[in-house]
Design goal:
Blueprint (H helix, E strand, L loop, with lengths): L1 H26 L4 H8 L5 E4 L4 E3 L7 E15 L5 E7 L18 E14 H10 L2 H26 L2 H15 L8 E4 L4 H8 L3 H13 L3 E4 L2 E4 L2 H8 L17
Antiparallel strand pairs: 1-5, 2-5, 3-4, 3-5, 6-8, 7-8
Length: 256
């Protein structure tokens, strides 16, 4: 049993590292040695349950979170007790990459459904970046991409009615999860209606009405944590969705 668990952890680490390398290679040119250095950053793996908080804003941490499987939410709790979800993260992303240059976590992270996290230890990360400085440029680009997504979220909540906000959320996640297969497909995204409401800035009742409207439009339907896209073209139209903010330019190597 111990050997089986060890192999499973190795598989999670290898899988998460491979996805991360694929992401980085889309925007940053790395040599073979630099790729190996990036792959070596993965440390121990651990599983988290739905709603479990992994990192709290302001917490001192000695590792970064590389998401291997599942979905994480970035959250903000108001003094009144209300919660806003300000972003989601998918496998291959490092949601707390900003702490690379801060002494403590700048966001709170919570699991949406079961998730697997691979630790990237802070001391190892810093030592590797000193030896391979191009990795800092690569992680900087990851932070810029995250900022672009955050800006689009602000526009989505500020400019679109509730139904289009939710449509946009589903369209974005489908692209980021790389699950778009033709005009009809489905993917796992185990959000409750309350969490959907927290992500798009509406009440749970309003979120429910908007989900029903999207179903009536035959664009998308959510059942048991699965998003069924019935008409991708229609969903994008309702969402006013343009994925340019998610796209990568040609791989670059500007600073080194």
């Amino acid at each position: 049993m111990a050997e089986s668990n060890h192999k499973s952890k190795e598989m999670w680490r290898a899988g998460a590292s491979a996805i991360l390398l694929k992401r980085i290679a889309r925007h940053t040119i790395l040599t073979t040695d630099e790729q190996k250095a990036l792959l070596s950053l993965a440390g121990g793996e651990f599983a988290v349950c739905s709603h479990e908080e992994i990192v709290r804003d302001g917490q001192s941490v000695d590792f970064y979170c590389l998401l291997a499987d599942g979905v994480l939410a970035r959250t903000l709790d108001a003094a009144s007790g209300s919660r806003q979800i300000t972003g989601f993260y998918v496998p291959g992303e490092i949601p707390d990459i900003h702490t690379l240059i801060t002494p403590s976590a700048t966001v709170s992270l919570e699991a949406i459904g079961t998730a697997h996290i691979v630790r990237m230890h802070r001391a190892t990360m810093h030592d590797t970046i000193r030896r391979f400085p191009i990795l800092l440029e690569a992680f900087w680009r990851e932070a810029v991409i995250d900022a672009s997504i955050a800006a689009e979220w602000i526009a989505n909540v500020g400019q679109r009615p509730a139904m289009r906000r939710i449509a946009h959320l589903f369209a974005e996640m489908a692209v980021r999860m790389e699950v778009v297969r033709g005009n009809e497909f489905h993917f796992s995204f185990p959000l409750t209606q309350i969490q959907i409401a927290q992500a798009v800035g509406v009440s749970p009742v309003h979120a429910n009405r908007s989900l029903n409207a999207l179903r009536d439009e035959n664009a998308v339907q959510v059942r048991n944590g699965i998003v069924f896209v019935h008409d991708w073209a229609r969903l994008k139209d309702l969402a006013e969705f343009d994925d340019k903010y998610l796209s990568y330019h040609e791989p670059q190597r500007l600073l080194l």
